[in-house]
Amino acid sequence: MTWQLSNTALDEQQLLVNESLMFLGNGYLGVRGNFEEGYRDDFKSIHGTYINAFHEETDIQYGEKLFGFPDFQQKLANVIDAQQIDVLIDGERFSLFEGEVVSFDRTLHMDQGYSVRHIHWRSPNGKEAKLTFTRVVSFVTKELFAIKVDVEPVSDIKEIKLVSKVNGDVTNYVEKGDPRLASGHAKLIYADQAVNESGLTQIKARTERSNLEVACVTRHEHEGAHDVECGDYDVTETFTFSGDGASLIKYNVYTDTLRHGDDLLQKGIDIQKGIADFDTILSEQKGYLDEFWRVSDVAVSGDDSLQEGIRFNLYHLLQSVGKDSVSNISAKGLSGEGYEGHYFWDTEIYIFPVFLMTNPEIAKGLLLHRYSTLDAARARAKEMGHKQGALFPWRTITGPESSAFFPAGTAQYHISADIAYSFIQYYLVTKDEQFKEDYLAEVLIETARLWADTGFMKDGKFLINNVTGPDEYTCIVNNNYYTNAMAKYNMEWAYKIYQDVQGGGLVEKLGVTDEEAAFWNEAAENMFLPYNEELGINEQDDTFLNKEVWDLDNTSEEEYPLLLNYHPLTLYRYQVCKQADTVLAHFLVEDVADEETIRKSYDYYERVTTHDSSLSYCVFSIMASKLGHDEKAYHYFNETARLDIDNLHKNTKDGLHMANMGGTWLAMVYGFAGLRVKEEGLTFAPRQVAAWDDFSFSLRFRGRLINVELKDGQVVYTLVEGEGVTIGHYDERVQLTVDSPVAKSL
């Protein structure tokens, strides 16, 4: 049953977790897995429906505000709630917390794209019925969220009522004391219209500052008697059935300003007219997912629990990734409000590669969204004192920096190089020459300009001071190895692409000169990459090794994550890493260092890394695979695959860890299979995983579909679609032709 995730828990903490685990989405719309009928009165559900990129702007309150600090931040808004359907059986309200639950299970069907709850319930007065709640967020009609409720009597019942409500008076969830969550600004949207006309409930709401509107148009399919009550901000419809049984389908269509322009209610009405019946919706859903899984599935035999985790992660990435020009994928996707719906560098480094190698059109969309924020990045660079270049934000929705804590936010200049890196990777995988001319060249030029203006030449070396690398426990440092190595790669490629596009309009438009481009090349060639001769490792930065080492052996479990228990300055004074930093650079730009340096650096940083960030385990797994530490590779990998299902970080209730989900795939494909994307093409250095009988996956590369299977001490490469291609297997070149598998020893 590795295509289904099932749960029967009703305890409070697991219910909150399950709201995230059972969320449904399609990249545009996301609905948390809340109970339609609600919970106990004293239970605080994180009730949420979200539209990707639909946000409000809120003031940032500073005790002391300095120049360049952002004035406001953007927050993903909880929008109109259409989940509620109450069930009354002979006047008694159905609740899983009253009466007797004879049986209960909830299942997420990842191969078919819907969730279902089956309940056998006996009321306090002895009335007995079986209830089924089926819900779907359509991949085919992105605006559609539908619920089907079926009630089957078991005992003698005279009347069943289903009470459906659509509510525009909603708030966001807040929780004080956790920097990963919002602590204020709960009220972000305001309903200004709630009517029921021609059998359609129509509610429209707006934000005050971002000037965005959202609408929900709801239609019910039923055979019972029908009453309607309209409030100021909500509409309630009551459907009355005989005791023989009841069935109700609720079709909810969401439209918003960002995609649908004006007259949102009419757009919703028009979409409602084209919606098929519920069975057809489910059939379309399965068809969409059949194609997704044909290419994207990663199959493992010998460990069903792990297989479940892998498919769960891939499915939720698909549900959350933006598939239009105005959206991306946030740290929690569309599953919750953690990190306020912001897009981080998580996208480019941890999530983007999954789609790049399986669904390149989705990957391209992510890059085009970043490109759409290039002007905001240019403006931010100037605000930060740079004469030119583009400085991308640490966290944002539409482009402006939304982080108020600059040491671990704006100071992470590496994000500009991370974004450039992903643009380069897309070009290497697709060889899309038009993309190079239209987008890649401009992004590389503007990010190279940032590095040229941020760093400087001294004693023949190019230095970059006062930045923060990926490790947020070490901030505002000189010559962070990761930052410098990624900047080097960024400028090398900017110089290379400049040579290719000379004579085109872009170079003239941007005013790039030969002298400017030559300086990028000079800076890259002379980039200072900290190295300690005595230890034989790349130093994380100029001063990291001069600090006292944090005593991790005597740090209690209750003190993790350290960021919730220690002031940042305390952390900054020690050698302690929140996550992979130098080790991450050794993965992404491995050719900059020799293998012995990479090996010694891995061993050193492993001892001082807490993995308080979910972005860390997968990187250590990948590099352990590269270095032949097979047991370590598998250990770290196991920390990623079921992180959310098993709630390993104890905060899955706030939303799923999207970057970790991407990291699971990376650990398998870039780790165990040893994939690397080089200028000359794809190369593999696979390793046998002792715990698995079989391991296979597929990749798209320059119009081809390639299947890779590791089994019985060998790897089999199969070109499924496309023209013949040459790949690398360790140091050997292997020619693939369609339907002619090539087997090689591990």
Automatic annotation (TrEMBL):
Domain Glycoside hydrolase family 65 C-terminal: 675-736
Keywords attached to this entry: Glycosyltransferase, Transferase
EC number: 2.4.1.64
UniProt keyword Transferase present: yes
Domain Glycoside hydrolase family 65 central catalytic span(s) in chain numbering: 311-665
Molecular functions (GO terms): alpha,alpha-trehalose phosphorylase activity
Domain Glycoside hydrolase family 65 N-terminal as annotated: residue spans: 8-227
EC class: transferase
Pfam family, one: Glyco_hydro_65N
UniProt record similarity statement: Belongs to the glycosyl hydrolase 65 family.
Protein name per Swiss-Prot or TrEMBL: Alpha,alpha-trehalose phosphorylase
